[in-house]
Amino acid sequence: MNANDPWRRSLRRLARNRRGVVGGVMLGLLMAMALLAPVLAPRSPIAADLIHPASPPDAAHLLGSDSLGRDILSRIMHGARISLVVGLSAVALGAAVGTAVGVISGYVGGLLDELVMRAMDVLLAFPTIILAIAIVAALGPSLRNTTVAIGVVLVPSYARLVRGATLSLKQTDFVTAAACLGAGTVRILVRHVLPNTAAVIIVQGSLDIGGAILSEAALSFLGLGAQPPTPSWGSMLNDGRAFIYAAPHIATFPGLAIMLAVLGFNLLGDALRDALDPYMPG
Fold first, then answer.
1. In whole numbers, what is the pLDDT of the chain averaged over residues?
2. For labeling, which of 59, 236, 263, 271 is most exposed (least CB within 10 Å)?
């Protein structure tokens, strides 16, 4: 049997999953909008028009303008780039560090495992947004530091997830056989353990990207993420907060963009969880 058959079966299951298809289409449109923002955006995202501030949606501004007269549609399209870059980068950072910590801790065991897991418990004891705010406040507000803060917050969940999978895999016959044949620890981890944790990491990562986008928006809302005049969905929400009754469109459309992006990743993550389940019928 072809070694790629399990992955092909998973792809077939994913293609038949309506939630996965809907989520994939939503994310495909989001990524296309982000990549093509410089071409598709009708106006500059930072160009102010003080003659027409907070104007409602019309032919000139399809989603209206904000308090400085900047085109909301253009700012949402360019803000999608920031949200996706921060979300993907933060999850990649958290998954890479957490996976390395979890697989080493689970395989080595003993005192090292105990110390590492207690350190992860300490990080998990803090509310995630409070920990992210503390890290950004210590490093200074910027998109790079926001990405690092969100990535650090995600490390404990991946460490615990991968450690649990490693503890199970360590007892399997193929890992025991590899050790008996003289394979070193690094070879066992790289060739036998890590590939068999890929499915759970992919599922967790697809779900966490939505949460990372939400965290970036929260930090930017508080002024700790993207700095003006950089367009960010979170900072756009903050700008519209003072006009929620007089010009509700300023906050409504960025809020809808955040909601749809997070919903798309959650739908795709749920579908991936079902598709990668080895006990699901092919």
1. 89
2. 59
Distance of alpha carbon 167 from alpha carbon 107, whole angstroms: 7
Q: Tell me: the pLDDT tens digits for 110-161?
A: 899 999 999 999 999 988 899 999 999 999 999 999 999 999 999 999 999 9
Check whether 182 has a pLDDT greater than 80.
no
Looking at the DSSP bridge assignments, the partners of residue 180 are none
Residue whose structure tokens are 């300023």:
250
Whether residue 269 contacts residue 213, with contact meaning beta carbons closer than 8 Å, is answered with no
Structure tokens at 146: 């926001």
Location of structure tokens 């367009």: 231
Higher pLDDT, residue 3 or 217: 217
In tens, the pLDDT along 79-93 reads 999 999 999 999 999
Determine contact, residues 205/122, Cβ cutoff 8 Å: no
Stated pTM of the model: 0.90
DSSP H or E segment with residue 83: helix 72-108
Rounded to 5°, angle at Cα 139 from 265 and 77: 35
Stretch 207-218: mean pLDDT:
94
Going from the C-alpha of 21 to that of each of 259, 266, 278, the distances in angstroms are 18, 12, 20
Per DSSP, the residues of 164-206 read HHHHHHHTSHHHHHHHHTT--HHHHIIIIIGGGGHHHHHHHHH
Q: What is the Cα–Cα distance from 5 to 40, expressed in whole angstroms?
A: 40
Q: Which helix (H) or strand (E) holds 79?
A: helix 72-108
> Structurally, what CATH architecture does the domain formed by 5-38+92-275 represent?
Orthogonal Bundle (1.10)
**Do residues 91 and 205 lie in contact, with contact meaning Cβ atoms separated by under 8 Å?**
yes
Strand partners, 71: 65
For residue 64, the surrounding DSSP H or E stretch is: none
Per-residue pLDDT, 188 = 84
